[in-house]
């Protein structure tokens, strides 16, 4: 089992200068390695038999790979001795990042999903130093010892869990300072195996929206906070301040830092809201069912700003991780007609987006539109057929009427 703990670092002036120097050298090396990949790709991507009869064939060379570029790091330190200051595994991680970015562009990830074309990193855009290996006892009290660094002070706001070993350490520069992220592993803790069968009793359906952040199948609503929209006035002033400064000056850097802190505050507010909402949801059901949303497609509409402000994708990914850690389950269902179909009788009741109340002319059900959708999501996850449920309800009503019939006839005869 692996977990990540993050702590605030408090480096001194010399350590800050060294971290910034390392980040700048790693940025230059990243751009150089990425340029090698692009040069080879531009000159070798067309097959020889596809070229015209008269053309200039480039000099063929070996394709840059992760291993070939990593082997050239030895020559790099000979040609540029100042790179000897950077720890060897940190440089190797830079090569790994280039390879990962390039492969995701050409081949995609394990699910076949491709990323955009990698870009060269401008000044200040390389923010992370990863140490793949650190000593098990690198943390002593409120200090951590990193390779080729002296002890750096950190704010240890919570102790490390017992039995976990430190696998990697990562120093990240953010808008308000430097942070240390530790990846911890405990082999004795087995991976969680979730064997939960969704039923109507243990399943909670949630419907995400923009009027309310979510509505559950039990009728509870969570208001949408809209942190980004509430901070737009402040954001506008900060962006104007940045645009009026001379690029590269100290006042420009100060304005950029203020702008970054504003964005960081909004992101932290949204993160805190997500985790509080997840904690509340997981306490109400063993299985959480939600729609499988095409968020990128929805974000191409005029509602893009509101959708990204709500952070649906991040919320659902965090929900899946927290549910797995708690031994619970999340289920995705097809969103087709979940807001149009009636949760009482299963009949389709077309309605516009502006209509917020579901009024079924077939069975007379009248509830909130989002609650109706949440109930449909829960039924789909639990495998409940609404038509069979309505049929069983009708049979039960008919049976009750048969039982009452002799009693009512007896009263009439008397």
From TrEMBL:
TM annotation in the entry: none
Coiled coil: none
Family the UniProt entry places it in: In the C-terminal section; belongs to the transposase 35 family.
Listed GO biological process terms: DNA recombination; transposition
InterPro entries referenced in this protein's UniProt entry, alphabetically: Cas12f1-like_TNB, Transposase, Transposase_put_HTH
Name of the featured protein: IS200/IS605 family element transposase accessory protein TnpB
Domain Transposase putative helix-turn-helix: from-to ranges: 1-44
Probable transposase IS891/IS1136/IS1341 domain: residues covered: 195-300
